[in-house]
Write a structure and sequence with these properties.
alpha/beta; Nucleotidyltransferase, domain 5; 4 domains; two-stranded antiparallel sheet; 13 helices; 7 strands
Length: about 375
């Protein structure tokens, strides 16, 4: 095969060591040199100097967990080009698998141009991604604690989530805090509800009449403290992420013009739009996305009972999700008499399954 890089190297990265294999082609002969380095900063600096002394122009490594990140950060200031490979795409044949063989295999693939480089964002985008991924985990932990809190209430026979849409809302937190403080009178607990709560006072008193014990109060206090701590951590991450979005303000502003995009979605999408070479930020592209989003979210009023199905619709309506299912036309369906719901149901059934009313034997001949 054609050799694209005469001087290259492959790195097999582990938690404590890095095995480096330098592959050099001179005069039609291939020579390899293998060394093992520790993953400390001083050893990684020595690794970079050794690769530069050997004249390597390209260095490849696998994306193994988070172990490749410190190696990449230390070697990023060197003169050679770093290539991050997907481990599944450079997998070697089974058998005789060692660290030295893996490094040599990476260098062999890189020399012939068979390693597809993965996208590695800029350091600012990596930091923002780390913040948002941490925020995602904290939101999941908060939801888990809220579920455990609801489970404790159910165990005490406090049916709070059946009368409140949000247990952690203003009314729910006030009632839970009163339960933690030792209040057991259903009437006093129901009086803490906000005036916008739809449930009646009698329903609230019935739902708040339970058998709460000291054990339940301890668990409620514990989970509520965890939820408050996670809320504070999420708010702190939001402030840090907003400060890190200073260089992506234009991207966030353009993404926020797309209908249906929330602030959190724009915050997550902006680093990808700004950092990926395959997703450049351009006004026509965002306008196209916005137009498609508007088409998907265009309100389509359902027909009134007895009216033709396609009447009043600006575009054709798909009757089903499968490819063979037909569309209703955009023009109005003429009817001599007022259609009933049964007739509309028959029409829809016939459009979805044209041969649905035939017998099994008849359908066999049709098909």
């Amino acid at each position: 095969m054609e050799v694209m890089y005469a001087r290259c190297a492959g790195l097999d990265v582990h938690k404590e060591t890095v095995v480096a294999c330098v592959r050099i082609v001179e005069g039609g002969e291939v020579s390899r040199s293998v060394r093992t380095f520790a993953t400390t900063t001083a050893s990684l600096i020595e690794l970079g100097e050794w690769l530069e002394v050997n004249g390597c122009t390209h260095v490849a490594m696998e994306a193994t967990g988070v172990y490749w990140k410190p190696v990449w950060q230390v070697l990023a200031d060197s003169s050679f080009e770093l290539v991050l490979a997907n481990a599944a795409q450079v997998k070697n044949v089974p058998g005789r698998k060692t660290d030295v063989n893996d490094a040599a295999w990476l260098s062999e693939l890189l020399a012939h141009g068979l390693v597809r480089a993965r996208f590695v964002p800029e350091p600012a985008i990596q930091e923002l991604r780390g913040l948002l991924r941490t925020r995602k985990q904290l939101v999941r932990e908060k939801a888990s604690h809220v579920q455990r809190l609801q489970k404790t209430l159910e165990e005490a026979n406090i049916k709070l989530e059946t009368v409140l849409s949000d247990v952690m809302g203003r009314s729910g937190r006030a009632m839970i805090q009163a339960l933690i403080d030792g209040e057991t009178d259903p009437a006093k607990l129901a009086a803490l509800a906000h005036w916008k709560v739809r449930a009646s006072a009698a329903t609230l008193r019935e739902a708040l009449h339970g058998r709460i014990k000291r054990h339940h109060r301890f668990l409620l206090r514990l989970h509520l403290q965890q939820v408050d701590a996670l809320d504070a951590a999420i708010a702190e991450i939001d402030r840090e992420a907003d400060a890190g979005l200073a260089c992506f303000r234009d991207a966030v502003k353009q993404l926020s013009t797309i209908p249906g995009e929330l602030r959190s979605s724009c915050r997550r999408s902006a680093p990808t739009w700004a950092g990926s070479p395959a997703l450049p930020i351009c006004a026509p592209g965002l306008a196209c996305v916005a137009q498609r989003r508007k088409c998907r979210q265009a309100p389509v009023d359902s027909p009134a009972p007895g009216s033709p199905l396609a009447q009043g619709h600006a575009r054709s309506m798909r009757l089903g999700c499968r490819a063979h299912q037909s569309y209703l036309p955009t023009r109005a369906i003429c009817a001599t008499a007022r259609s009933t719901r049964a007739e509309e149901s028959d029409l829809r059934c016939c459009c979805l399954h044209p041969h649905g009313r035939l017998s099994h034997a008849q359908r066999r001949h049709v098909l």
